[in-house]
Amino acid sequence: LNLILSMAQLALTSCNLFDSSADRVTVHFINRDGERLTATAKEGESLLEVVVNQNLSIDGFGACEGTLACSTCHLIFEEDVFQKLDAITDEELDMLDLAYGLTDTSRLGCQVCVKKAMDGLTVQVPAEVADMRRELEVGKQSK
Ligand code: FES
């Protein structure tokens, strides 16, 4: 477990190359109800950090605070943007596999770093959310 946690922390910090003078990037989130939420992100922030720092109202998003343990930060990208994202890690892939409504262009928002080239990006919040921590708890209780 410790190994998993330290890998998650490594993954967490991999985005943090930004400083106060970092470029601003506009990101749009289409929420579950179809509402468009627009945020001004800093280059180097993860999309989870954007949601948290800008107080975007996305129900249940980022429940594990980016430790790759929940999949509630599942986001669906446009094909052309998805192709340009950094490579996915095995740890992200494993957690993503457990997300509801998985698509070919799905990623976990806590693992995707904002880049200048993403300015104007629109991502879709899937209709359903799976919190693997909760599912595991329910599983334990029903045994
Ligand atoms: S916030 Fe939990 S996996 Fe991303």
UniProtKB/TrEMBL annotation:
Q: Which GO terms describe its molecular function?
A: 2 iron, 2 sulfur cluster binding; electron transfer activity; metal ion binding
Signal sequence extent: 1-22
**Principal localisation:** mitochondrion
Q: Which Pfam families match?
A: Fer2 (PF00111)
| Species for this entry | Gopherus evgoodei (Goodes thornscrub tortoise)
- Is Iron one of the keywords? yes
Its annotated compartments are: Mitochondrion matrix
Name the UniProt record assigns to this protein: 2Fe-2S ferredoxin-type domain-containing protein
Q: Which GO terms describe its biological process?
A: P450-containing electron transport chain
Q: Provide the alphabetized UniProt keywords.
A: 2Fe-2S, Electron transport, Iron, Iron-sulfur, Metal-binding, Mitochondrion, Signal, Transport
Q: In what residue span(s) does the 2Fe-2S ferredoxin-type domain sit?
A: 25-129
